[in-house]
Amino acid sequence: MSQTTSFNRVADVLARTLHAHGVRHGFGVPGGEVVTLIDALQAAGIAFHLARHETPAAIMAAGASVISATPELLVTTIGPGLANAVNGIADALQERIPLVVISGVVDRATRARYTHQVIDHAQLLRPLVKASFEIEPDSVASTVARALAIATAEPAGPVHIDLSPAVAALASPNYGGVVPPLRFVPSVAVTDPAIRRLSDRIAAVERPLIIVGFEAARGHAGPALKQLAETIEAPVLTTYKAKGVLPEDHPLSLGAAGLSPLADRVLLNLARESDLVLMIGYDPIEMRLGWLDFVEDPSKLVDITNAVSDHGMHHAGIRIAAAPRTVLQALAGSVVARKGWSGGEPAAAKSDLQGIFSTRQPWGPHAIVDLLNQMAGDDGLVTVDSGAHRILLSQKWVATKPLSLLQSAGFCTMNAALPLAIGAKVADPSRKVFAVIGDGGLEMGIGELATIRDLKLPVTIVVFQDRSLALIALKQASAGLPPAGVTLGETDFAAVARGFGGHGVNVENANAFRDELEAAGERASFTVIACRFDARAYDGAF
């Protein structure tokens, strides 16, 4: 412990409380108002990682949180520091991430008189956080524990805490933090009336369909889901963030839905033909407008989630408010094995989807996804940025494990892949991590190459370099409009990577890409592989 932490400051109690609740990583850009906090975090065993901008720092914390399954921390200074983070905090809200945001704030004694860099932090973040607090010396541990409880309650989301430098440095009247309670999730009994009623309902239908979301993936519902799906022969589709909760090489897996009109034509038709839809930990925040009221009869929809419903995308006839895994386990023990979909419609849908997203050219976005999928293997972790490449990758990618493909799927912000990869690699250094990003996204957050260098993270960064904001260009074309504001110049990303201390290479064919992926896996530093192709390769792709 450093000399500056030899006494019991308010900041120390705050940090110890965070640590007791599982927080191990803080990301941010420091300012004078948070230096005591950063010192206390490190003394408490919470590593502080310097980012180059506050929005990527928030997304780094999100990536770490998904992998660690605990809340993680964003630290900002006053005014412009917190304002810089707004996009990242909004992303945490819509991505259901229990992000703790701690910002420095001007000391109370001068706040009413002083105007330099002063804004109302709580008011700024009011639409974006579940709660906002200011730390007082006598209640620091209880306030932090309360904030964490709110952040982790379903649907999870960010909370905000203001801490002034004077309060942070005060001697605290209490030494200890608040330890979180032991948390138990009781099993749902097979004999529970809700389970009996649902089991009877399942027994009476012939075409059941299962839609799975992020909550189920985070809640380790995969094994029970697989057992239920196989017992009742129900095809399974997921949101993009729940990919792999049922291995996508399983015959009953239909892959993911979310943003592809071509996939929707197949999957929505199947949903309408079904006579029961089990929505398990499903959050429609990831879905496009085509999934509004996606079946005519809401009575055939069953919603199984612990989260409070905050949408009007659909209206379920039955809602079971419980952890998805416990409900699935009870159902798997109560339903009787049966044949479903006698007409073979799910298999036909799966075949149609495979045809739609098949690779037709030896080089281009389809081939890049195929090769990366092969090289990443079952244990690789991939993050992907927003854009045309994300939609194509999310549809083509074959995920065999949950939480192995991370993205901003609710908020769909650009410049998410690189910070997500940084956070994920920090949380689990043993994982092979690949960041997949468009050239526009990388240029938006290119400074974080310095972060990945300084943290010495051997992440492989795959750039889809089509010299275009391709998704927007496609939308302009579909509206009958000429392209405007979507053309990018050709940045030499290989040279940029070398300038930041990593390895960089430009590739234009499949063999070179495969060779570079293999070589990247042997390096101790980061690698940027810029895959160059024509944006027209996306025409009709999704």
From TrEMBL:
It comes from the Bacteria. Keywords: Plasmid, Thiamine pyrophosphate. One of its GO terms (molecular function) is thiamine pyrophosphate binding. Pfam families: TPP_enzyme_C, TPP_enzyme_M, TPP_enzyme_N. Its cofactor is thiamine diphosphate. One of its GO terms (cellular component) is acetolactate synthase complex. One of its GO terms (biological process) is isoleucine biosynthetic process. CDD domains: TPP_PYR_POX_like (cd07035). Belongs to the TPP enzyme family. This is Thiamine pyrophosphate-binding protein.
